[in-house]
């Protein structure tokens, strides 16, 4: 009989990359200055963060977080269901419902848990959940935990989505779940077409706005705000670990649907609630998002600056439409080596390799923030130019 740990002992891939000195993961940051960080004792331009609006260092956010600790303590030591609900949890939910244009909202301890809890509680044995093949892992795992049938359609392929709905119709209910902004390549889902198709086939629509909230739309309220179709989306999911500079997640929708999720989502009921400091930080971030739209404008200016600069140098930035800008490299080892060269030259980016992306499509995931200075982006582009030429990419 095999030892269940045999697979662990046989796993050598990561240690081989570590031994080669090009391992890009679990890199400890020693100091954080917002647009720059210190790692391995050197100061680097941070172009790997989801801190799109730069609010992790905003004075109002830091002050609100500190005050919440003084008032409520460091944690809630219980689930929302029992003793872990604070008045600021409910205040945040009211704010989020209004912000997204829905009747009610419910916060979870993480964004991952939000998708797990919502999908697994909504999708039953006689139901189907239809997802984009490029959807986030948390959506995939939420589908696995549900008792329903999981159907997939080709990435952003509306003809394929319609074909799936037309041919796979022997279900009590159907829920379409898509990312608003896809986290690896930075493209936006064709939400108006998805909503139109869903109506024709009596399906509901849930949008994961983890990378859209604070970024897309006239008000920064996400993908539905961006396309001006708030009424067409049934459930909006978002996270607090990106633009909202904290930790946690939420779901917003009709009051009765959120009420049902509140009493059936196991990942919320059996998890400790968001700590007071995190909740207060999100509320403060909402204030900033609503009162400082110029931050969002600067973010988009920076995104265009970096994307155009990379394209002009000859890099493949894929289908990016947002502040997430991939640089396609190809093979895993080459991607790791270029990541290391960028790091050594003062630029911190993320490395995404298969199976996170398709084989042969490994990439460097860059992202900009509203607090980046133009000079920092220019400096990063100079480094990309130097490293890209040395590697024969451009």
Strand arrangement across the biggest beta sheet:
4-10-9-8-7-5-6
Topology order in helix (H) and strand (E) letters = HHEEEHHEHEHEHEHEHEEHHHHEHEEEH
The rounded Rg comes to: 21 Å
Number of helices: 15
Low-confidence stretches: none
Sheet with the most strands, sense and barrel status: 7 strands, mixed
The total beta strand count reads 14
Given helix and strand content, the structural type is alpha/beta
What is the domain total for the residues?
Answer: 2
What's the CATH class of the largest domain, please? Alpha Beta
Approximate strand percentage = 15-25%
- At the fourth level of CATH, the homologous superfamily of the largest domain is Type I PLP-dependent aspartate aminotransferase-like (Major domain)
CATH topology of the largest domain: Aspartate Aminotransferase, domain 2
Distance between the termini: 52 Å
Structural shape: globular
The appropriate CATH architecture of the largest domain is 3-Layer(aba) Sandwich
Helicity range of the residues? 40-55%
What is the average of the pLDDT values?
Answer: 97
Describe this structure in words.
By secondary structure, the protein is α/β, with parallel strands linked by helices. The protein has two domains: 14-46 and 293-391, Aspartate Aminotransferase, domain 1, CATH 3.90.1150.10; 59-291, Type I PLP-dependent aspartate aminotransferase-like (Major domain) (Aspartate Aminotransferase, domain 2, 3-Layer(aba) Sandwich), CATH 3.40.640. It has 15 helices and 14 strands. The protein has helices at 6-10, 13-19, 59-72, 87-100, 111-122, 137-145, 158-167, 191-200, 223-227, 255-262, 266-269, 276-291, 293-313, 332-344, 374-391, and strands at 31-32, 36-39, 42-46, 104-108, 127-132, 149-153, 173-179, 204-208, 235-239, 249-253, 324-330, 347-348, 350-352, 362-367. The strands form three sheets. The chain has a seven-stranded mixed sheet, sandwiched between helices. Strands 1-2-3-12 form a four-stranded mixed sheet.
